[in-house]
Amino acid sequence: MILPSLALAVSLNEAVRDEEEAREPGDDDDLDRVAGALDRISELDDPVEAAARLIFHVTFAHGFFEGDKRTALLLGAWMLDANTVGGAVALMREPDDELGHLRRRAARGVDVESEMVRLLRSRIPTGDTE
Fold first, then answer.
1. pTM for the full predicted model
2. Could you give the dihedral angle defined by the CA atoms of residues 106, 111, 115 and 121, in that order, rounded to the nearest 10 degrees?
3. Which of 20, 33, 63, 104 is least surrounded by CB atoms within 10 angstroms?
4. Burial tier of 80 (Cβ tally within 10 Å: 0-12, 13-18, 19+)
5. Distance CA 42, CA 53 (A)
6. Would you tell me how many other CB atoms lie within 10 Å of the CB of residue 18?
7. Where are the alpha helices (DSSP H) in the chain?
């Protein structure tokens, strides 16, 4: 299974930040938290489960100064696409109240990891991966 790197996570985060989200002195990213979120999926072999758990852990970790939820979503989509599952279809819906609600709860520190996995599995049934 192809896994995202910390460098990819940082690049995606930089891409999603707006000019208004510029950092002040002392507003640094905690890349150890982001690396920890990436490590939590390293032993998984199912890209759908790994993508869901990655979205949760990156959001929950608050490793970036800004853009954790947006970065997590892009990492999840990247993970699905890199493993030929089709992340854009599963994750990039407009509007996506269900996934948005789970991401906001994760950002507030609520453990919604299993709910995130269930939601993503419902969108990508087993057997649809190559």
1. 0.88
2. 80
3. 20
4. buried
5. 11
6. 8
7. 6-16, 31-39, 47-61, 68-82, 87-91, 97-107, 113-123
